[in-house]
Each structure stands twice: as C-alpha cells, then as structure tokens.
Amino acid sequence: MPVRMWGLALLFAVLPAVAAAEPSVSLRGHAMTTAALPFRGYEMLSLRPEIAVDASVREGPWRGVASAAVAYEAAHDQWDTDEGAAQFEPKDIYAAFRGDRVEVFGGLRSLGWGATEGYTVVDILNPADPSAPFANGRSTNRKAVPMLGGNWSWDGTEAAVVVIPRAGVSGLPKAGNRWMAPDLARQGMDIQRLAYALSRDRRPDRPEYALRIVRYGREADMGISYFEGFADDPLLFLNVSGEADAVYPRYRQLAVEGARQTDRGLWKAEAGFAPRVGFLSTGGEVRHASRAVASLSWESVVGDATDLIVQGYARFMPDTPAGAPAGTRRGAGLSYVLSDSGFDDDRLTLGVRGLHELRPSSGMHEIFAVYDVSDDIEIEGALTVYVGAEGFGGYSRNSAATFSVRRYF
Question: pLDDT band at 21, cuts 50/70/90?
C-alpha cells in the first residue's frame, strides 16, 4: 500500500479518538506560502501554498498523533512532470501506549536516531523524500514510513526496537520532477520513466529491523545500534538489453554514537560499519564491498545568540574493490551552521549553512534570514546554491532565491 494511502487510513483511524477525548486534545498547525525564483531556467521554480495540521490526544497511558499537510504547486506547469499539482503529505500518524518504563507504538512515523545532524550515520530509519530531498541547505527532508516499535527505559539507559513491515526506501521522483536523479536526467526522459516504473514495481517487499541502546550520563551519552534492511536509494543502470534497471541492495550496519558536553562546547560523534554495500562499478556492474563511515561535530553558543556548528565526516571501503568509482571508494566532507538571532530585539535571525563533499567537490550552501513578525507570523528568505561538476552539482538548476510567509495557529 502506498505511503499516502497508509496515511489516509491511519488519519481516519486516529481522528475519531481525537474527537472523543476533547479535554486532552492538542491541535495546532500553520498556513504557509512559499515562492522560489531560480537563478536560471524556469520562470518560477515553485509557488506553493500549504496548510498543515498537527493533532494529538492523550487518554491515560494512550496517545494518538495525527499530522498531515495539503499543498498545491501553482508552478507545476513550469516543468514536464508526471506529478500532480495537488499534494497530500501524511506525516506522523500513529498510536502509542506509555507505561512507567515501556512505550510501544504503531503507525506512520518519522523517527530520528543518532547524535549528529547534517551528515548522519545512525539516522537511517526514514528515507529521504525523492520529490523534495532537502529541507534546507544542510539537512535532508525525510518521509514517514509505517513502522512498529517500542522503548524500554531503566537507570539512565534506553533500549529501542523498530520493525518496518515493508522496506522504507526513497525510490525515485516521478518523471520530470526537478529533483530527478542527475544521472538519469542526462540519459533522457524516456529512460527516467522506465526506471521509475521498474523501481516502483521492484521495491523490496520485505521488512527492515533496527535496534538501539543508549546510555545517558550527566556529561556524556553513548549508544550502539544495528540496522538490517535495504539501501534507501536504488542503483540505476542500463542492463544488457539496453533498458533502464533499478535494484535496492540489502544493507546492514552496526554503529556507535556519543555526545559529550565540555566547557568549550558540545562534541558529537558517530561511526558505522556495513559489511556489504552495493555499488555500480565503472563497467556498469553491480558489486559489493564493506564500508566504514564516521562523523565528528562541535557545537557552541557564542555569547547569548550566536550558534556555531562545524562537522567533518569521512567514509571509505577498507578492501578497495576493483572497479569502484573514486567517489565510492572513499569520500569526505563537512557541514556547518553559523547563525545569530540577536538582531532587532531577538526577532531577526541571520545565518549561513551548508554541506560540502570534498572528493569529488560538490555541495549545497545557503544564506538565510528568519524574521518573527509576531508570535504567530514568521517570514523566511534564503539564497541556496548547488555547486560541483558531480554530486550536488547535478541539482544546480534548483539553485534559487526562496521566500516564505508562515502563519501559526
């Protein structure tokens, strides 16, 4: 069942409970309009009004959450795409039971794991949304997937287990979407349409599993996690018949994480090892090799209003398999955020953020400003660029000036 159908079914299942427990209901949301003007190409990259609602209800140990958004892409006719202009986006729609030390839940959920942001190692439960993969100039826009799970807490330790009944993978954007994979975009629309159809039909119809244990301390936290499932992004290639093909390799990862507060800032680290990662060789064949990845970040508050986050990361294949492209064998990069919210009596925030791959060189970088007109009205503007001959540079046509107005209710 498609995620949007799951979302509708769960929404109608949760809303009656929300209505029946009116004294314990929390209802909030926002109305927003976003306009994006490209630096080149389309006349209007996006003109998108949106209404989002977040509802929750508590009744004793039970909790229900229903969060969804409806939007209309008025600039839909600016590019040749199979996607419709009207959009329904289910977010978190689930029910949970919380006892003294145990919580169990089931439904459509976006669940973040791990210590770091920007480039993440542990946070792989929810795949990127192929129709809009980037939330801003540094982070990925994740989509919720149906899952079951539970947490058990004792003496400063928490153990969590998650089962995703059908593998939650990113898939491909529909043909013509402005975020379509750059390698397929170069091969043409017909191949993109065929690859999308194949990937849609061949998405893994198997479950994924994940386990995480975290120990929380006074000055430091540490954890370990294990994931078994499938790679979020398919490998896209032309098969021997000259047709587009897409496969999702199996993916297993053992990872560790940690965070420590010091007088000079907050340090966060993650590291993971995957014994078998699928990749496309230089000859166009699907091969496998082990891969290690690690990230280290430092966060600090300078003065009362200036935030600084700097992160470095690296990945490599220890056995350096023959035929692996240079960017697959090893890679490194950095992400950053520098923002100051101390302007105009703390109503204006100015900043820069980005993520840049060093080998091969590509990245996304953004200058942004957020102004709180009042407690319930927010205006945001950003200049975002995608650079590089490969990687993020494949999305350079999405470099744009973006402006949005949001009203909370």
Answer: very low
DSSP per-residue string spanning 132-146? S-BSSSS-B-B--EE
Short-list 343, 334, 406, CA closest to 376: 406
pLDDT digits (tens, 9 = 90+) for 351-375: 999 999 997 799 999 999 999 999 9
Q: Which CATH number is 268's domain given?
A: 2.40.160.10
Cα dist from 160 to 58, 152, 214, 215, 219, whole Å: 22, 6, 9, 12, 22
Q: With the CA atoms of 127, 66, 47 and 81 taken in that order, what torsion angle do they form, in degrees rounded to the nearest 10?
A: 50
Q: How many domains does the chain have?
A: 1
Which amino acid, residue 276?
Answer: R
Domain that holds residue 154: 3-408
Q: How far apart are CA 208 and CA 90, in angstroms?
A: 21
pLDDT digits (tens, 9 = 90+) for 96-131: 999 999 999 999 999 999 998 889 999 999 998 877
DSSP string, 376-406: SEEEEEEEEEEEESSGGGGGGGG-EEEEEEE
The pLDDT of residue 184: 54
Residue 191 CA neighbour count, 13 Å, CB half: 19
